[in-house]
Amino acid sequence: MAEEGWEPKIVAFCCNWCSYGGADTAGMGRFQQPASTRVIRVMCSGRIDPLHVYNAFLEGADAVLVTGCHIGDCHYVNGNEKTEVKYKFLEEMLQQLGLEPDRLHLNWISASEGERFANFINEVTAKVKELGPSPLKPAGVK
Amino acid sequence: MIGNVYQTVCPGCNMGCGLYIREDEEGALAVDFMKSSPANLGKLCRFGMKLAHHYSKATSMVDGKESSVEDAVKAASDKLKGADVTMLGVGNTTNEESLAFSKVADALGTVVNTGMGVYSELPTECHPTVGVGITLDDIESAKRIALFVDPYVQYPLLVRRILAAKKNGASVVSVGWRDLHLADENKYIDPDMYESELGLDSESVIIADVHPNTDPGWVKRMLNLALKTQAKILFMKPFVNATGVDLLCKGTGQKGIPEIMEGINEGSIKTLVTLDSDPIELMPDSDAAAATLTKLDNLIVISSRYGPVNKMADIVIATEPLYAKAGSFMNVEGQLLNNSGESTTGIDAMSTLAQNLGGEALDYQGLHNNVLESIVQKFTKPNYKELACEVLDIGPMEEKKGNLIYLYNPFMWFDEPDDNDFVMVNMNTVNKLGLGKGAMIALTSDTGTVNMRYRVEDMPDGLILTAKKLPVATGWTTIVSTEAV
Amino acid sequence: MVNVGDMLVGYATDEDVRKRGASGGLVTAVLAAALEKGLVENVVVMKHINEFEAVPIITDDVDEVLASTGSLHSVPVNLAKYAMGRKVAMPAKPCDAQAVIEQAKRDMIDLDNTYIVGLNCGGSMHPVTTKKMLVAMYDIDPEDVVGEDIEKGKLIFKTKNGEEKAIAIDELEEAGYGRRESCRFCTLKIPVNADLACGNWGVIGDLAGSATFCQVMNDKGVKLLENAIDAGRIKVEPASDKAIAIRAKVNDVMVNLGSTLEEKIFPEIPDEGRIQFYMEQMADCIDCGACKEVCPVCACGEDSKCTMFHSLVDNYKMSMYHMIRLLHLTDSCIACGQCSDVCPSDIPITLLQSRFAIPAQRRREYTPGMNVDDVPPFFEVILK
Amino acid sequence: MTEQEAITNEESEELRIGAFICECGINIAGAVDCYAVADYISTLPNVVTSVVNKYTCSDAGQAEIKNAIKDMNLNRVLVASCTPKTHEPIFRACVEEAGLNQYLFEFVNIREHCSWIHMWEKEDATRKAKELVRMGVARAALLEPLQSSEVPVTDAALVIGAGVTGMQAAMDIADMEHKVYLVEQGPSIGGKMAQLDKTFPTNDCSICILGPKMVEVARNENIEIMSYSDIVEVDGYVGNFKVKVKHKPRYLNIDECTGCGLCTEVCPVEVPYTEFNEGIGTRKAIYTPFPQAVPLRALVDKSICIDCGACIKACERGAIDMDQKETFSELDVGVIVVAAGYDVYDPEPNNEFGFGLYDNVITTMEFERLINASGPTMGKVVRPSDVKPPKRIGFVQCVGSRDKNSNIYCSSFCCMASLKNAQLLKEKYPDTEVYIMYMDMRTPFRMYEEFYNRARDMGVRFIRGRPAEVTENEDHNIIARIEDTLTNEIVNLELDLMVLSVGAVAPESTETVRQILKVSKAADGFMMEAHPKLKPVDTTLDGIFIGGMTQGPKDIPYSISQGSACAARATKFLAQGKAMTEGITAKVDDDICVGCGVCVPMCPFQALSIEDDKLKILTALCKGCGTCMAACPTGALDQSHFKNEQLLAQVKNVFAYGEV
Q1: Which of A52, A118, A141 has its CB closest to that of D657?
Q2: Tens digits of per-residue pLDDT, C137-164?
């Protein structure tokens, strides 16, 4: 366990139409969350490149969340389906690399599911707090 | 066959890495791996991998206008006849061309300066040890290795040799500015403590390097360390044929490049002839070097590459690219390595030049046999010359003054771009200046300011290391002030 | 008269080519005929320099093709990238053929313009290691060697004075010599993905040592053979059932050897120590990019997503360059060993890449480089 | 100097970023110390000004931005306030007015993503806000000017669904001199409203309002009605939609048939008429939907037709053609209005309140058909068990609405519907007892509350409670046990007829249309609007609008107003004749692209193709999703405004060496 008061830093990639909207709805619903997560907006979850996920871990992220529209709801027909294919490879690779599985999550969240978004952030932050800082975090990075 | 395949040696440094250069039908170059080459098993470092961009072709020029090689040689002969000429050939080319160059020097009654001023301040009996070090295979059987170079940046193909030595049980101490992964410990200590602190004995190897800007005192200190601890020593050098040129253009009293620059500034040198040696690229302060060269009456450049000095030269004699030359090189181990190319444009040009100046004609075969007799015989089986001299008087050491320190590497010797385009500082400097991630650090010296990206390293406070030539640098160490951009 | 699936035994009609060939000189004859009759514009061949050195060249001169006869066990190079953008015929070890097909999947090679004459392969060796092995294990001066062969699990060297010496491969590999590590766990010994699959396995009876077994894999294989027969360059006859059985047996032995060695080469790394293991393995990398330049499956130019991170300005704990390559090649790495060969820090990159590629490929029952129509799973698109 | 060069020149100048931190009253300032954020941001490289204002989106706030751009010649603007989903267009327009390219603007969300979700951790919220804005500044530094491109708009509109909303929208657009294709899946336009008897709150006869409108729609020469047709495919983008419509076969020639009904009379096959009369009464295999149908044409239900040929003989105009095939037509339209309507909630699956078990439990829609003068019983309300007029009738409210086991939403019209039906009963059969069992009577709009009082005055009895148990006695009367929560008594009510006041659900057909159009789905299954207040009838897809029940349960007045709203929003594009497409599209660097073609199958809009070893992008078709870039191994493909370097700069600036 990390030293007391350590707060995990989580990077969340959200798609403009659904999960970003979900985060907004969580805000509108005032669903309180730990201040651990930084949202980066992309137009579609299909835009999230494993390159960005790796860069997030190597820059110091303790967890990375890949989120987007539910299957069938993608504003661009099937961007999220391709994300699922890439995510499978990403997950397998980071697992083989030795990174704890709980540091990487894929979650489809629609623009109306504010509470679900908030719960998701709460759960992940709690799990990551359990795991402690990421082994890939460079020295001296906050 | 379609296009050409040349077996050649990488001009990056004195390691002698063998490789193939492929030239397709349109003349585009590509690097290919020569796995049978003993020095490097076909492996190449960052510089070797980018060689396709290195061989920029030179064009013969007379007084700023393009001309044929023959006219350039004719014009050069007229200029050189009876003149007081200084010649510079650091060893960026083959033994045979270097020998031809020294024949031209004979005709002019002068010597070829190899740019390594160090040699003229060392007793002749320790020249062989500085010239030819232990073999690369012997590094792998050393018990203890003291590193006075940063292999990752400066001589990368040493890395696998040192790792192999560690597998055979060697311990490695690095005496540099930053922690090296392959070093068991890093001792950035006062030079006087080297003998007592580094734990060297007869089964140890010291790896240092010598180049035109090295302080002779430093080389003596290295030799003394080897003498006192009976450790073997290997001096790496920055030019592919530094060893060959040193042996071919013998004689103490040769001038180093800094000395030549001073000579030009004082007006004692009026005419300079270079062979594949561009002072603007070689000197730490390129702008100062360029300014100095304008003071020359005659600047004659014999070169296979297009470099900044070509632009300033009165006469340029363009020779064929290095990989295409017929010729040989001698690496740091004293191994003779041959090009597969057959072109002799450079040699023929110098042959004509020598004849115009009263010397005899030269041909490749003659020069090659001379090389075999003069330097290879002496080193048929490369063996390490035990140091046979007393402890040397180091004399006044020009104290290291600056906090910006050069980590000389092949990209710097040719002043060519490299992706590793940053300076190194430690975390205290980052926090002191409040540098953000991905931000720039501003380095200011009395010659100007430059903004550079930075990498965080474990190294002494206040120091800044750079593997890239910076306009603000005036020597291999420079005093700079730093602030966040 | 030749059709797909035929199992034949044949030899070059030119006695000199036949004699110098590793088996019957058939491969060289087929390549020469392809050039002569205009089936192709160029041929990729190995230009011999000495017993342990040869360099791949692209030629349009039949003599250079004929001069390249004879198999080279100590020149481990992948020929795929030399076939790009040309109408060409080429000899190909199984990993060469795999790389050609992977490049074809990325439109960098047009398979219809690339005739692949496959060669059985027991495994290749590194020239410098082989020379050291000859001195240490065989007590032979490398200069005297005139030929070598792999048979019945033994590595045989022939010297100028006609002498032959054989030592078991696993004995050599125990002592740190023998074949390159990637060849040890390779299980594709017969190039079934090429147009023709040739070799000396299964050449028995009076033809032993002077003929080549040849299996016709597809229509291009038929065209190659018929073209060579028309050119009068080769003679072929159907292989006997016994020959076919023996060839299959030899193949099984080699394939099993490959799979048993796999466990030895890839010991399990405990979960908690695994990330430290990879960090330690990559720590000495100087980011030279050689492993990408040499990779025969990689289709990118000099600028790509991995080389975008060549600068070491960010002191990440793991190189972005390697993480991207590990992912991009998860579904297409053919473990040909080229990257390990050219790494200046001697990092066993092929083994590291295989730790990611082999499980991922097996999980998807996908083998790269076998069929140009298989879409690499990473780019599999679920288009309703 | 062409415009493109002007942009790139301006690009090479020194970066001058202006940061504007919004307090949004106390919405942000309540948890985030905006002044601390502004101070921190002013220390970052290239930030020229970093100020706080109370309401950045107000006129004063926007004026301050415009002045700052002019006075300090800013070439990048960053606003840290609420969500870009609503306010990015406002600020983009603001910076554009000040002469700065609208894409040189970065928006950081420190309200929904920060202050509102960390209300009690002021320190954490401030630190997070600083980091979010730092990320924004890093991205702002790398933004490049873009031009959103203009596309011509085809001067025609498609309206899907010809219920009251669809008809209203169609007429409004047509009246503004634009061509309208009105596609209806049923045999006649009119939708569910045609089935109703009277409509609240005026109790005027439903068909009397609807009929004239239907005729007007039919007569309007700008409207082309395509009845009995389905939407099969929609491609393209705003202004240039390609729509494929399937015309289901009626097995008779629509131009010849006059709807005279002779064929229907001779047709020997009869089945319960579920489509229109909720299964009460019957219809023939060949039938006209209802008397006031538009188009008044018959159609053949092939599933029950026995091919006896009687109708063929009977038809004087020889209109019937039994092997008529389905036909397709391709429509080019500029805008699309979706008014695909709803389905009535079906209580049968779990036999709610005895529905499907006892004959005398019916739904509102079945009641509407009973009481309707042109209905199967000519307006006589009878008990299904013995076809006698019921003496005691009870309405059960919130069936299939406000119920955890079915739909949690309130369907908004069922209370008023029951009040109306109760009044009709009292008027027609004064001595019947009418009960309404309810939880809350919801009568929100003009004259609704008065309508409620009138029902009470007419003697309708209200019981605040819903039947806990419903049983049937021997003469099929319904016994409802109710706990009246106002009197806290258990009431056993015997009823002759019980009407379940059912709500609305999203129909299967709307789901298919929704998937074809790729409009997102709300939690309640209906189509989701872009924003409840700011864009109530828009969808997130430019040029596609939704109105009426398809957007969620509502009553007829609300539906009709949404019909007009859709028309207004849609006609903007038709009137302007051009539409601005988003400037964010894919861009390829030809020097790096090796032509491996891996990206091509990634694009669902067919915008990518390989031509002589290089990638070619049809920017008009590119929607800017970015999926192809994630697949491109070389990095040659990048997305304007979301470039790899911009995303990586944000990732890098999530972290820092020192404490913020």
Answers
A1: A141
A2: 999 998 888 888 877 788 889 898 888 9
Give the burial string for A101-112 (b: 16+ CB within 10 Å, else e): eebbbbbbbbbb
| Residue B25 in tokens | 């039908």
**Helix, strand, or coil here: D43?**
coil
* Cβ contacts of B49 on chain C, cutoff 8 Å: 288-290, 293
* pLDDT exceeds cutoff 90 at A22: yes
Q: How far apart are the first and last CA of chain A?
A: 17
CATH label of the domain that carries residue C154: 3.10.450
The model's pTM is 0.80
CA neighbor of B437 nearest in space, from A142, D366, C27, D166: A142
Convert the pLDDT of each residue in D60-92 to its tens digit: 999 999 999 999 999 999 999 999 988 999 999
**What is the mean predicted confidence (pLDDT) over C236-263?**
93
Measured between CA atoms, the residue of chain A closest to residue B431 is A140
Write the single-letter amino acid at D597.
Answer: G
What is the tens place of the pLDDT at every residue in D583-594? 889 999 999 999
Cβ separation A140–B456 shorter than 8 A:
yes
Task: Answer yes or no: do A136 and C278 touch at CB < 8 A.
Answer: no
The verdict on a CB contact (< 8 Å) between D598 and C303 is no
Look over chain D and give the mean of its residue pLDDT values, rounded to a whole number: 92
Q: Does domain A10-131 have CATH number 3.40.50?
A: yes
C79 inside domain: yes
B455 touches chain D (CB under 8 A): no
Q: D interface mutation test: which of C379, C382, C383, C384 has the most D CBs within 10 A?
A: C379
Q: CB of B33 within 8 Å of any CB in chain C?
A: yes
Query: Which 3 state secondary structure label does DSSP give B216?
Result: helix
| pLDDT for C262 | 92
Question: Are C116 and C199 in a shared domain?
Answer: yes
C141 and C114, same domain (yes or no): no
Domain-terminating residue out of C258, C284, C300? C258
D138, D649, D658: residue with CB nearest B434: D658
C336 and C361 co-located in one domain: yes
Instruction: Enter the ipTM.
Output: 0.92
Chain A contact probe: residue of D40, D114, D408, D655 with most A CBs at under 10 A: D655
Please, what are the domains in chain B? Answer: 4-49 (2.20.25), 57-398 (3.40.50.740), 404-484 (2.40.40.20)
Question: Taking CB atoms and an 8 Å limit, are D596 and C308 in contact across chains?
Answer: no
Residue C2 lies in a domain: no
Pair C75, C219 in one domain: yes
Cα separation, D244 vs D329, whole angstroms: 6
Range of the domain at C356: 268-382
H or E segment at D629? helix D627-631
List chain C residues with CB under 8 Å of B421.
311, 313
| Phi, psi of A64, rounded to the nearest 5 degrees | -130, 130
Is D309 strand, coil or helix? Answer: coil
Q: Tokens 């990752």 map to which residue?
A: B152
Short-list D408, D362, D383, D390, CA closest to D500: D362
- Give the residue from B437, B455, B459 with the most A CB atoms within 10 Å of its CB, the best one to mutate: B437
* Whether the predicted pLDDT of D9 surpasses 50: no
The shortest CB-CB distance from D540 to any of A17, A72, A86 is to: A17
Same domain, C252 and C374: no
Q: What is the DSSP string of C248-296?
A: HHHHHHHHHHHHHHHHHHSPPPPTTTHHHHHHHHHTT-----HHHHH-S
Chain A residues near any Cβ of chain C (below 8 Å): 49-51, 54-55, 58-59, 78, 81-82, 85-86, 89-90, 92-93, 96-99, 135-138
- Residue C286 CA to residue C191 CA, distance in Å, equals 35
Domain ranges of chain A: 10-131
